[in-house]
Amino acid sequence: MPGAELGLRRTRSTAAPRQPVPRGCSMAAVFADLNVPGAPERKSLQSLLEAAAHLGYSTVAINHVIDFKEKKQEIVKPISPSELFPSLPIVQGKSKPIKIVTRLTLVVSDPSHCNVLRSTSTNIRLYDIIAVFPKTEKLFHVACTNLDVDLICINVTEKLPFYFRRPPVNMAIDRGIYFELLYTPAIKDSTMRRYTISNALSLMQICKGKNIIISSAAERPLELRGPYDVANLGLLFGLSESDAKAAISTNCRAVLLHGETRKTAFGVVYTKKTPRASEEEGVLPVRKKAKTEV
């Protein structure tokens, strides 16, 4: 019908422009931004969530940062998303509300700061994601090898004071820990863009694109970028097309699963079946012997 065609054309013209899809990206992929700062004003946080849902993000992590270098801070209990927002925005193209998870990031500049993670704090266990931001090479090594965390943040606003080494990075990958790169500093300032790309390339030389996620840390809706734009930025960071897409989709899901395991698992029991003595010696059991003789 002419009227129906006209209505369809109007709907398409008022919709948001489609972003270019990199090769290897599926339109049905589930995207996530695991670093949205917890703003003190609820209205500004609401606008960030609405912008993320409009861009197509299905999951967003509200990040609570604690810097021990500043005044003494306590790890508070995370606020439930249902208490913050009575109604959540609908994800564009998904027809379901955006999912909100909680995240705690600890900025550590001294080995004593890591004791908070080693202690059995009830409030720490309530967060869906635990991230650590090490400031020195020693603390980076400790985070990769010993700390029970889900994410290790990489500094992108200044030149790193140390070089990434293969043994701790590989150990972190084996433990299921992921490394986080932020893209917002790269679009704010040319100097930070240079540091972001340089630090990211240094990490890619060691990890070969494995266990990487890309987050925003956006404080305003205008600083958010769509998932496919972020995947294209990942190419500048040294990621392949498939790794760049995974950095905003499947890798983020793996981080959430790792956090869920950390919260619920207290230990792992391995069972191994040992052969019986008669089987090891090649001698048949008595029952089988009788059947063979008959």
From TrEMBL:
Localization (cell): Nucleus, Nucleolus
CC annotations in GO: nucleolar ribonuclease P complex; ribosome
One of the GO BP terms on file: rRNA processing
Entry-linked SUPFAM superfamilies: PHP domain-like
Main location (coarse class): nucleus
GO molecular function terms listed in the Swiss-Prot or TrEMBL record: RNA binding; structural constituent of ribosome
Annotated region (Disordered), positions in chain: 1-21
Pfam family, one: RNase_P_p30
Gene3D superfamilies to which the protein is assigned, alphabetical: Metal-dependent hydrolases
Alphabetically ordered keywords of this record: Acetylation, Nucleus, Phosphoprotein, rRNA processing, tRNA processing
Role this protein plays: Component of ribonuclease P, a ribonucleoprotein complex that generates mature tRNA molecules by cleaving their 5'-ends. Also a component of the MRP ribonuclease complex, which cleaves pre-rRNA sequences.
Family named by the database record: Belongs to the eukaryotic/archaeal RNase P protein component 3 family.
Quaternary structure (record): Component of nuclear RNase P and RNase MRP ribonucleoproteins. RNase P consists of a catalytic RNA moiety and about 10 protein subunits; POP1, POP4, POP5, POP7, RPP14, RPP21, RPP25, RPP30, RPP38 and RPP40. Within the RNase P complex, POP1, POP7 and RPP25 form the 'finger' subcomplex, POP5, RPP14, RPP40 and homodimeric RPP30 form the 'palm' subcomplex, and RPP21, POP4 and RPP38 form the 'wrist' subcomplex. All subunits of the RNase P complex interact with the catalytic RNA. Several subunits of RNase P are also part of the RNase MRP complex.
Listed name of the protein: Ribonuclease P protein subunit p30
Organism, as annotated: Chelydra serpentina (Snapping turtle)
Underlying gene: RPP30
